[in-house]
Write a structure and sequence with these properties.
The protein has three domains: 6-101, Nucleic acid-binding proteins (OB fold (Dihydrolipoamide Acetyltransferase, E2P)), CATH 2.40.50.140; 108-123 and 135-261, Rossmann fold, CATH 3.40.50.261; 354-412, no CATH class. It contains twelve helices and 14 strands. It has helices at residues 6-19, 60-63, 103-119, 147-159, 177-189, 215-223, 240-244, 252-259, 263-296, 299-302, 304-348, 350-355, and strands at 26-37, 43-48, 53-58, 75-85, 90-100, 137-142, 164-169, 196-201, 228-232, 247-248, 360-363, 380-384, 389-399, 406-412. A five-stranded mixed barrel has the order 1-2-3-5-4. The longest helix has 45 residues, at 304-348. The radius of gyration is 62 Å and the shape is rod-shaped. It starts with 5 loop residues before the first helix and ends with a strand.
Length: 413
């Protein structure tokens, strides 16, 4: 059997306690006793009930965020993890949060609501919209008499006085606050000119911020078609409306800074744009000037008359050459055609017929004789030969048979 040292046994117990998932995050209800605020900032106390007591340690970083000051006899709910303080050999609760009794149930309900809304996608980053860079109209859902509205208006006037603010006054705490806030968001959505909405209030105790942890307000923020900035309490306060909104601001003043551009920065950007535009215009004009100078140096613009005359002379020479070519081609075609027709005409010429031994007889009146019966003996006729002609007197005419030719006996005079 192994014998353990006190340290080994204590370490073993500590390890077993810290490895138990149930003891890693527990809520314990009890009455505060032996409460000591140490100069180091740590907080030491006990919580007890009618049957037992438990030592509690709360380190400085968590104690600084407490919303309440603990007093002996206060009924509280403590959240933390269980471990062993080896030097004293005692187990104790290391507190991470302390709330007044009754707040624990609310906290559990809040956590359940968060989980359900997260499953439904109300917290998804993908659905969150960017804010308009320069809003013309800012909707404001907050109390009309609180410090938050004054802070927001002061920042908006300073940064971007051109923006118009539409205030939807509501109660920011109390039983009617959730309904008023949700209705105000919906009314601002019905105004087409509203570009962005700020929803929020100044700091306060957790129960005073509870309206912004309700499902009614969360649904109204989620359904808003206008981007919503949630600014509830101080930087350490995170509500459900912060998680649903398109953007969370640490404070109302910070929300105004996120929504409104800095007029000095905008003026600087406009000046940079003006300078850039001026440079671009100058570069464009310089390029156009160089282009124009290059065009002016061209012959067509330097001596337009000479250039036009030269171009016209060149064009006339080209047309003249084309005309000559066309005319020569037409003449050659006409010559060839004439030669063909001349050949045909030559073959049909009466002279060619006369050259073969034929002649043409005409009466005195010039009519051509085609039949011997057309003249009488003693009548004078002319006979045209290939070369020259004869003046003859008809001695007699005779007609052959039906199939023979008519003949004339001629006497040359």
């Amino acid at each position: 059997m192994r014998i353990l040292s006190v340290r080994e046994l204590t370490s073993y117990i500590k390890e077993r306690l810290e490895s138990d998932p149930f003891l890693a995050r527990v809520w314990v209800r009890g009455e505060v006793s032996s409460c000591v605020y140490h100069p180091s900032g740590h907080l030491y106390f006990e919580i007890k009930d009618e049957a037992a007591r438990l030592r509690v340690v709360m380190f400085r970083s968590q104690a600084a965020r407490l919303e309440i000051r603990l007093e002996n006899g206060t009924a509280v709910v403590v959240r933390g993890y269980l471990s062993v303080y080896e030097r004293s050999g005692s187990y104790q609760l290391y507190a991470q949060a302390v709330e007044p009794e009754g707040a624990g149930a609310l906290h559990e309900a809040l956590e359940r609501l968060k989980e359900r809304l997260q499953r439904e996608g109300l917290f998804d980053a993908a659905r969150k919209r960017p804010l308009p860079s320069i809003p013309a109209v800012v909707g404001l859902v907050t109390s009309p008499v609180g410090a938050a509205v004054k802070d927001i208006l002061t920042v908006l006037r300073k940064r971007w006085p051109l923006a118009r603010v539409v205030l939807a006054p509501v109660s920011v705490q109390g039983e009617t606050a959730p309904y008023e806030i949700a209705q105000a968001i919906r009314r601002l959505n019905e105004m087409d000119e509203v570009d962005v909405i700020i929803v929020g209030r100044g700091g306060g105790a957790p129960e005073e911020l509870w309206a912004f942890n309700t499902e009614l307000v969360a649904r109204a923020v989620f359904e808003s078609r206008v981007p919503v900035v949630s600014a509830v309490g101080h930087e350490k306060d995170v509500t459900i409306s912060d998680l649903v909104a398109d953007l969370r601001a640490a404070t109302p003043s910070a929300a105004a800074e996120l929504v409104a551009p800095d007029r000095r920065a905008v003026r600087g950007q406009l000046e940079n744009l003006r300078v850039g535009l001026d440079r671009a215009i100058r570069r464009h004009l310089d390029w156009r000037r160089l282009r124009l100078e290059a065009l002016v140096r061209r012959p067509v613009l330097a001596e337009p008359a000479a250039w036009i005359c030269a171009r016209r002379r060149e064009k006339v020479a080209q047309l003249e050459e084309r005309l000559k070519n066309v005319a020569a081609r037409l003449v050659d075609e006409r010559k060839a055609r004439l030669a063909v027709l001349s050949g045909r005409l030559q073959a049909l010429s009466p002279l060619e017929i006369l050259a073969r031994g034929y002649s043409v007889c005409r009466r005195a009146d010039g009519r051509i004789l085609r039949d011997a019966a057309e003249v009488l003996p003693g009548e004078k006729i002319t006979v045209q030969l290939r070369a020259g002609g004869l003046l003859c007197a008809v001695e007699e005419t005779y007609l052959g048979n039906r199939n023979s030719e008519s003949r004339i006996m001629l006497k040359n005079l």
